[in-house]
Amino acid sequence: MKGDAIPDSDHVARYCKPSTIEDGEIMATAFQIRLGEESLSVNWLEYLECSNRSEEITMIRNAYSKKLKVTSNAKIAVLNIGNTREKVMSGSDDQRNLEFKHDPSRQDPSHSGIYNINHEDELISELILSAIEKNNIYPAKA
Amino acid sequence: MINSCLQEYKEYEAARSYCLAYGASELSFDPLENTQSIMGWDKTNTAEFTQIEPSINACLKIAIVRKSGLFDKQDPFTQMGLLSNEEERVKDLILRVQFSLTASYRQALATRILTLFKIAKEEDENGVGISFESLRHFYYFLCAHPYLKRPRISLTPQNNIYASWKAAYDKVLSIHFMPNGDARFVIFAPNKKQPERPILMSGKAPVDILMSVIEPHGVKSWAAQ
Hints:
Chain A is an alpha+beta fold.
């Protein structure tokens, strides 16, 4: 349901557009929001009820292809919620408590948001980046 | 454009030879503060060189950029005109990165910026691609600190330049070059007593004094060549 908090044990996927990537390496700008945006857009993987990560990524790619112009060098970064929240809370001056909330739409039922991010939060974006494990990055296009 | 660029490059080479002949490379210069002083620079007047500095190449480049009118403000009549003007200025500046930056990576960096510009235009064809003012401050920063390694660069949601020097999880320097001349930075520095807990800091400073603010935190140990 919209606004539900996502459990710390779950994972979200973030679409990282090519302008936030160099030589296949995702940069912190992939986790920054525009002025006026309330949250960082992500997808809740466990909501998809797939049997494995590969199926989840396939479904996420399908969701992206319906609403984005996905290019071959874009990436999908998968974040564990508890690990990300812990990294940000312990690393930020204000012990920032990120909130991961379900924000579904008819077209994209697993759509969710990361809240408590401001548009000039370079440190927070670097901390989120540091929470990504290298084996949790996938091409956005099969 | 190519002819104009070649002409500019020849002009730069001639000016550089002239400067070096007069030993100007031992003088000092702040590219962000003193650009006005070299706007009306006359190659026949060696007195002008009293304001130019070790990175003589960087100064000359800026002088040439000034002479070429890159920073002249124009009065576009339409929003499209404004956008087009901004894009042209970005493209001009990319050429200057390619031909006039002293760093050995200038060709690779220019290619990367051009790629980013094209990607940004693909992502939003009505957008500016790259913020000219942000790119200009990034360029000045590299001119003033030619010993830095080539950073990885990407674009913020505002199309500003975000540069990052990363050597390890606890050796990170990232800088967001904002159009107004400020820079927001993030540093992850090593913690000798507790290596698993790097020292984290962030802040904001004008680009021209940024290095003096961040240098005490040891960033040169991984960001400099």
